[in-house]
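ugh ok so i messed up the first submission bc i forgot one of the chains. this is the corrected input, ALL of the components this time, i swear. 870 residues overall. if the numbers dont match what u have on ur side tell me asap before i send this to the collaborators (the ones from the other lab, u know who)
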Amino acid sequence: MNGSTAVADNYLSHGRGFRSWFFTLDHKRIGVMYLASIFFFLILGGFFAMLIRTELLTPGRTIMDADTYNQVFTLHGAVMIFLFIIPGIPAAFGNFVLPVMLGAKDVAFPRLNLLSYHLYVVGAIFSVVSILLGAVDTGWTFYTPYSTTTHTSVVSMTLGAFILGFSSIFTGINFIVTIHRMRPPGMSWNRLPLFLWALYSTAIIQVLATPVLGITLLLLIVERLLGIGIFDPALGGDPVLYQHFFWFYSHPAVYIMILPAMGVMSELISVFSRKHIFGYKAIAYSSVAIAVLSFLVWGHHMFTSGQSDLGNMIFSALTFSVAIPSAIKVFNWLATMYKGSIRLDTPMLYALSFLLLFGIGGLTGLFLGALATDVHLHDTYFVVAHFHYTMMGGVLIAFLGAMHYWWPKMFGRMYSEKAGRLAAFLVFVGFNLTFFSQFVMGSQGMPRRYYNYLDRFQPYHVLSTIGAYVLAVAFVVLAGNLIHSLFRGRKAPANPWGSATLEWMCASPPPHDNFAEPPEAGDPYDLEHLVYDESIGGYVPRTAREGA
Amino acid sequence: MGKMPISLIRFGEGSFWMPAPASTAAPAVDRVFDFILYVSIFFFLLIVALMLFFIIRYHRGRGVEAEKTATHHTGLELMWTVIPLILVFIIFYLGFTGYMNLATPPANTYEVNVVGQKWKWLFTYPNGHVDDNLHVPLDVPVRLVLTSEDVIHSFFVPAFRVKKDAVPGRYTNLWFEATEPGEYDVFCAEYCGTSHSDMIARVIVHPPGEFEKWLQDASNFLERMAPADAGAKLMTTRGCKQCHSIDGKSNIGPTFLGIYGREGVFKDGRRYTVEENYIRRAILDPQSEIVAGYEPVMPTYKGRLKDQEITAMIEYLKTLKE
Ligand code: HEM
Ligand SMILES: [Cu+2]
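and heres the new structure output, hopefully the right one now
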């Protein structure tokens, strides 16, 4: 319990060589491989983003032609959504942390877990191949009949997304079973760490919604290859039906993205405020509420599609109901900080950024949920800004917070706080520069997915592009700091932040089997029994120190 | 990062957030927007203020012992559930009533048919005249009946705060009443391929009395103009130039420069020479003969062009000599 096991054997040194990683059944190694792959796709998606922003510096051609631009924004969206943000936190950190948080040796089905990683790799290869085959120009939403008539490699891209869906479903099943069956003694549902509540709710959506996307994409492929009319009106199909199918999955999918991020937030805010989380039950149940409600609001992406007015009214009303559990969480996090002992370490800086950025993202959702204003704002840059504030300002920021929080546990090294904070600050500044101006140009009427634009929108575009470059610098600092820590970082103590969840009870990095025997679980937010030990630069249980 | 109540400051023609309103619906939409904006600013500032206050007040060094404090408070939690609930209900209601206003045209509207096609809007007036811009009278409710020739487009006039998808194989509609004479942009808001961002038309709002004059004038151009000039005009209004250049550059379709008398091969290997009947077939049944090197993407104009119009277009093409 005090870190002495670190010397002997840990999961990183347990077996060497490619095969010991690529065919491992150890959830920690699978988590690390996911992290590396997902981070790679984040960088690739980011590279496409830089191309987009550079092209938009001037109206008309800046560095590429219209067709290339259309392919680049499609790839940016598809890579970010399917390869980064949907698997994101659950696959990388969920895999690594979930079993250790439960004091278990592994997930319930280690082989299924490995299979889901392999499927992720295969799906990713399909997507990358479609880039090489001449890319796709439909936008990540693949709207019909455009996607059934365009001459680009839509089939291999959608097949990629189809396979990735299975990877996601398998991970979901695994997490549900693991949380149900493998909780340690003392961990009732009311003592489940909130990150696990979030993963649990996410897994439910993954298992129930992903098959719909799978079927939809299959129908799309069938229509393209066999010419059977499902969505294309020229063949007797209904193009709007596709949008219903697509959003029936993709709306819940935005909660597949954000719920784990909210789970991370609950851990970070509590630990770095050194205080018990406020309103545990409200936070836990609001995750479940979001998971359920998220299935009922897909029509809010289609307010201008010609959908009936009654349909629009119902979808608008239901959309607002999702805002409530989100608001509850935000206020509970704020209340957690009240009378805490707040430390502004790098993960906490990301948590605070999340509060502000996700706050803006959620509040701008109100403009889009309200019918009268959505008609004007739909498919403009306002929507682009809204979903970047929620997905990038929310999910990516929480991902980075999680990465800095669990990094010492995963790799046994501390990074430089100074560089970490600098990167967090630059991310915050760059992000707002990039996306706030997009709200304004959107409500001024600038439609999205535009290669060319009217001169009067240029000042906003220039600001946005400058912000994107600041973000690029921020990521160089961030990645440099973390990579540097692997070689030069101070050795991490078992519990550097003073957290009470079980993963901090084993050494950093954890031994191959995590725990010799399941530890007794207490209240995961009861931090008072942890005290700082100067000599190791981390926290230890009060009893351990007083015993020494 | 913060949102400021700058929408109060009017500069240029519009406000910080919105283009100048030019329809009866626009001010109503803007009121809903402003209401949500103020609610949002209030909550955002509340979050920022609490956060900053807590950070400054409770900032402690490393190693401080955790203290026990309240872990929940039913009254507070009820408060921040119920207050947002009431507010979002109000927002929903304002949004919904505003929308019903946008969705319900008054009786006796002036009707224009709108067709979206890659990458052009075509407007057909009740007398059969087709134009590539939308001309409307001031202070008269206008109803548009929208459809599409190919993929989904979306008809968007920011100054009027209206938007509606144009979907192939069905009709959708939209109405507005312009309140300011002038010219406004029409954008395509649903992504539709290569020139999506150039699919821009204009709405021209005519002062009372002038609209009818314009329509009269515009409708009888075939009689008024030399055939070649009329043909040139038709080429622009019907969207031919979206895909065919007149300067020799190859585009989605072959260039028109030097087209009359040109020789070439079809995809299936047959040879052709361009003459009057060839051009007529290419317009009315474009899928039957595809020039080698091009995709079969051109829509048919069967039923959409009169013989007299096709003749005018042929005359125009003859003038485009290399
Ligand atoms: C209070 C919470 C939220 C509300 C009320 C809300 C509302 C909406 C509405 C009404 C739209 C449709 C806008 C349109 O297309 O006209 C939309 C779009 C979108 N939202 Fe949200 N949203 C909320 C939170 C989130 C969150 C948490 C995420 C993701 C993590 C998210 C991601 C997106 C995305 C990706 C789109 C656009 C998809 C596309 O068209 O490509 N939203 N939101
Ligand atoms: Cu379009």
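quick check: Residues 1-6 of chain A have pLDDT under 50 and may be disordered. that seems consistent at least. Chain A touches chain B through 97 residues (CB under 8 Å).
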